[in-house]
Design goal:
single chain; about 30% helix; 5-stranded mixed sheet; Aminopeptidase; alpha+beta
Length: about 130
């Protein structure tokens, strides 16, 4: 079955929230309310197959310097079909079109993102460091 990657619409909110919250229950993503998804709907892409949302990802642009791929989720029944890769590359394409220099992903799926061209260091060995406040 063919999947279509497209910008999300308001009618996709329930499907996006459902996917994100599956991964949230697995403690792989933060849960998102419908209000949050609605607020950021213009940053989302969805993968649609036979009228059903089977994947989603968002690009949050912080500045012309940096953006983040967020809320990447693919229905487990659809995994292994390159949907995640297509969603990430839709985000990268949007970042390029907006002149964003760097795209990051905070993830526990390092190997997946490395296959998409992400690395732990930027040119000149620049790395992101994090401080966990909890």
């Amino acid at each position: 079955m063919e999947t279509i990657i497209r910008p999300a619409r308001v009618g996709d909110i329930d499907g996006i929230q459902r996917l994100i919250n599956v991964y949230a229950r697995e403690q792989r993503l933060y849960p998102r309310s419908k209000i949050e998804v609605r607020r950021f709907i213009r940053s989302f892409f969805v993968a649609e197959a036979e009228g059903v949302i089977v994947g989603c990802a968002a690009l949050e642009v912080y500045s012309r310097k940096i953006a983040e791929v967020r809320s990447l989720a693919v229905d487990h029944h659809w995994s292994g079909q390159d949907i995640g890769s297509k969603l990430v590359h839709a985000c990268i394409k949007r970042a390029r079109s907006r002149g964003v220099a760097e795209v990051m992903a905070i993830t526990s799926a390092e190997k997946f993102f490395e296959k998409q061209g992400f690395s732990f260091a930027l040119p000149h060995e620049k790395k992101a460091l994090f401080y966990w406040t909890k």
